[in-house]
């Protein structure tokens, strides 16, 4: 009996041990799915943002543009307070809008001789630097841009203030002309409306843009005299081309003699020569200047106003076109009052009597064509056939 009990007890213990050893088996079964689940996050490619990287780089690649501003001769400096500086500001506006640094993407080049061969050479220098598009300010490039455009057909050129000569505008060139006659008209109109009666005009050289500035100035003064009901001879203009676009002692002496003789304000359409006129103006009381091409109020408080061309706007427009693949090659563009291509900087002018409302009214008449200013280019005011009845013009040959 004792043996039977011992056997039974041994069997019970055996079953108990088997049960204990069998219970842990489900644990591995649970661990297996847990181990299979953990790889799932690793299998999911979280960094799916990699496709966005090319998008972020695309603007940089699309705007990898180099712009060269080329001056026509050794006297034509970059910061001239006039044409070159206005053009450079347009380049800076474009670069800033597209996140490009001026140090890497823009450069000023200066021709060391004032002839077409030297200008083509310096354009070649700009292209070797890597320029994709060249900005050429001034009528001096009317022939050399034609030569360069044929030599470098893959480079784009924007020539300001002139038309190409000879022949039609090449497919890689845009020319921009400005309505100087309208800008000059506004200046002449404004100074007479302000109350000036003894005024002067100093042009650089009698080339078409300068002539249009001068003739427009005369016509604007005449128009204002008529509106004010002035008598014949109440307004007198001394009119002269100095033969250069640079400052000189001779220009300073002439300006000083004009001021000393009673001239109250001189419109200087002669590049950097305004510096000499300003020196003369600084030497006495009640002496004023009218600036040209750009707003020159920052150069001196003696600039009553400036007969502006939208240089910066037009340059920025052309660069924007080029960057977007819509460069208007082969076209001759004209910036006038109808597209705000010219004007006076009224906010920075020193007018006390000529009001913004009066300016807006005359500007609108120019823009809609109800007031038309002559574009005739002639050696003298008399030969231009301007309709002058009240203004006395004293031309100095």
Overview of the structural elements:
Helix content is 45%, strand content 17%. By secondary structure, it is α/β, with parallel strands linked by helices. The strands form two sheets. A seven-stranded mixed β-sheet has the order 12-10-9-8-6-7-13, with helices on both faces. The protein has a six-stranded parallel β-sheet with strand order 2-1-3-4-5-11, with helices on both faces. Helix 7 packs across helix 8 and helix 9 (180-194) packs parallel to helix 10 (208-228). The protein is globular and about 60 Å long. It starts with a helix and ends with a strand. Mean pLDDT is 87; it is low at 1-62.
What's the SSE blueprint?
Layout lengths: L1 H21 L3 H12 L1 H5 L8 H11 L4 E5 L11 H15 L4 H4 E5 L5 H14 L3 E5 L6 H8 L4 E5 L12 E6 L1 H15 L3 E6 L4 H21 L7 E6 L7 H12 L4 E5 L4 H9 L5 E6 L9 E7 L1 H13 L8 E4 L6 E2 L12 H13 L12 H4 L7 E5 L1
Parallel strand pairs: 1-2, 1-3, 3-4, 4-5, 5-11, 6-7, 6-8, 7-13, 8-9, 9-10
Antiparallel strand pairs: 10-12
Helix pairs in contact: 5-13, 7-8, 9-10, 11-12
